[in-house]
Amino acid sequence: MITDQIQTVELLDHAPPYSEAFLAARGLVGLNVGCAFWNLRPACVNIDLLKVETLGGQATEYGRIAILDNRAHYLEYDVTTPIPLPDASFEWLHSEHLIEHISQEGAIRFLKEAHRLLKPGGVLRISTPDLAIYVEGYRDPARTFFNKHARIIEQLGRMYPEAGSDAFPEVQRRPAWMVNQIFKYWGHQWIYDFEEMVYVLREAGFDEKSIERSSFRRGRAPKVAEIDLVMHRDETLYVEAIRT
To answer: What pTM, to 2 d.p., does this model score?
Structure first.
């Protein structure tokens, strides 16, 4: 994606796979997955499949870590495939509104990679649209959630007009439309409730006893929970698991 929000892209000389020594030298202790370029964080590897290109023609390269604007390490990569990072190297992994964009089989592959990459005791924090919120909203005659969320979609459409109608459709306020839009639009492939999230985490190797529901910007690791974006708060399921 060509953007004016990123001014410089510096590709590092190091080639994958990346070593523990490389990560330690740069102070990279976490993984921020599905960050695109608008939620970049320091002291971690920010990962997204999105190619970032500046107006000046500098661009990320698949599989190579780049530094964006001299402040954030970014890896353009498909996390449903083996990630070129060493086992048990990270204290935390944060993934916000990514898992619904891949198949459930792909989600399990990603979460297996998350389990491999986390140190024992490491925290996985994952968020995604909550199917239960939408079902409850459909059954609510006052349409409280649907009316609020429709306004949020409209606001985001005004904020990012360049994304077009494919990203931000014209909002219809009928309850059936509000349910269907989480499947038809946004590139979503699978929508989760808490039970479904427990299933994929368990399949990926996380101990079910370590899995718990969380909430917006609250969790076992406060600095990780702080990464949560306000724009997703109203519709989101927050879940954490520990690598035992």
So the answer is: 0.94
